[in-house]
């Protein structure tokens, strides 16, 4: 058989990255979005998302990509993925209306033998409820991670595929496409696949919550979490790739949405989600770690301080600020002067009433009573602590992720606060 033609509908983060990765794997790809303005901008190379290597990969494989806002173009594809990002509200509830609307548009345009695959993250029961032939309707778990989306799309660990009948072979074109990536394919019923994605994220949150809880104990008893982590990774029950780095709670939107979904399902079906609600409470508490450090080390000692904040994105290698701990911190620091720098996110007046944008990280530090490094960008890792100390008026560095070298910070006379490190390490 000839190589199948693949379509991705919905050119936001998930759909765009997946379409480019499919082209890089050698497939002809129809990249469809109902918004002609968005399609025209992407075709010009003006991408709506920031991901390492995405612009270069798009340029390299542009000849295999057809960008279109005309649904009739989907008639020549063999497999159509419905892949818009699913927005969430302030309560982390998903708005599934746009996904359903796009499914309707795509389904009407497909040929009689084409396969429709929902790639957007949806709750259990969504795919089963869709109209159309069940033998040509599937759900596939997306593997996107902000900042690593291209890598994950090109080299997935496995494909989890929801089917009407998991014992039946996948359609030939669909199997050929998945097989091109050289990873295991796990067919299961629709609801199992939809819950599998949520299950993965719940397990990650469990690890993150354990790391955060124990890291705080380390800070108080003189232990160092960074010394403990290697021992945990050598335990086969935990493993070398476990999420063990402490952080500032859960951010980005996807994990919060899945925890909210589990709580909702538990309430609807009479099961217990107490531990999930405890993880959410722990996340809110840990988000304010930097604020507690600032109060204890700076605000209780300095009148009318100037604060430097490095990083606005919720994590490195992305411009997303969804549920960003940095923005929550800025909101809590409203009475004070704040100077901010981020490599990708421009400061906006709504972030803080007394916000000043800095041209470089060191410019942000100039004359500040403390610097708070809220996003572990590589650019910040390259900063020399002695250069930071020269610019600062104070001596305090709030560095939750340990971006700056701890030995060099001590040598420069800086009092550095790091998640999971003893509170008074600088004096030890």
CATH hierarchy, class of the largest domain:
Alpha Beta
Name the poorly predicted regions.
Answer: none
Regarding quaternary structure, how should these chains be classified?
single chain
The coarse overall form would be: globular
Query: Main beta sheet, described?
Result: 8 strands, mixed
- Please bin the fraction of helical residues: 25-40%
Strand order of the biggest β-sheet = 3-2-1-4-5-6-7-8
Q: Number of helix segments?
A: 16
Tally the structural domains.
3
Q: In the CATH hierarchy, what is the superfamily of the largest domain? A: NAD(P)-binding Rossmann-like Domain
Strand content: 5-15%
Q: Measured on Cα atoms, how large is the radius of gyration?
A: 24 Å
**What's the CATH architecture name of the largest domain?**
3-Layer(aba) Sandwich
Number of strands: 14
Brief descriptors of the model:
alpha/beta, Rossmann fold, 6-stranded parallel sheet, 16 helices, 14 strands, 13% strand, globular
